[in-house]
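Example 3.2
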Amino acid sequence: MINTIIFFFILGILIIVHEFGHFIIAKKVGVRVEKFSLGFGPRIFSKQKNDTQYSISIIPLGGYVKLAGDSIEEYKGRPDEYFTQAPGRRAAIVFFGPLLNYILGFLFFWLVFFAGYPTLTTKVGGLIDGFGAKEAGIAVGDRVTAVDGKRVDYWEDLQNVIQTKRMNNVVRLSVLRENKEYTLDVKIKEKALDDALGAKHSVGLLGITASDDIIKVRHGVGESLFLAAKRTEDLTILTYKALWRMVSGKLSLRESVTGPLGIFYATSKAASMGVVVLLHFVAVLSISLAIFNLLPLPVLDGGHILLLGIEKIRRKPLSLKLEQILTQAGLTLIVSLALFVTYNDLVRLFGENLSKFFNK
């Protein structure tokens, strides 16, 4: 029950932030906001304030802001309507929703770095036969403190340095063993491993595995801001690379995309690992939501921005019929994708028996 509450609470935050982005810019440029809804379907709560009705609906998997005159059928030419505004102003209203999700993700990353996060130390937990570490005399329990004179404090730092080395390179490791420091020369071996995007890369390895020795790492305000910006940049680049690999058929859509069920499971797992891990997960989710919404597909915010760009260039909007066709095509694509990822999540969570059941 608690996991369900956490899931819907997080989902609610992401939706409210997104819709508030549309809401605040609409107000700023003088567009009347008729409704601000968290959820879809029958209303379970509603309150009217000034020109806007605020409501919570029974299906919490989304939300929307209803702007005055935001469809050709309703548009009456009043100054406070959406279609009265220039394309640039309408694009700003649309864009600010994903932008606030993006900013929220960045702020949550900053909070993670500032509050402190768990990370593995460089303590050796195991040795792999046939690799240089064992041959050089590295022992379980040793703590690697430097590579070729360069200090390493965390397992990730050690990996980043070693994986750039090539076959038969020799690295000089400084290791701490029973409070005494030793220097050992270790020969590198290469192995092809899959990266986060499913592409194989040859990386250098010592032949050691991490222990379960974990410490909490905290950073100052300024350094946390820098690290949050870097993490946000890295995640953005990784996401767009993954999207390109999916479009080009180099990355499996089935293995790379998840829906509400998968997100619920991941949220529950993150929550069980502590507040900081949950915050990190929400940051990733918020930025991913922003990037997805900005894809140039009809129905999504990115699709609306694309159509507004075309309108700006043509100096007139697309015909109502063409826009309806594009919207219908986009809606069909999104619904199909939603059904696919939901089915995929069910197979992932409940096993291949479900796949066999559907394929009978």
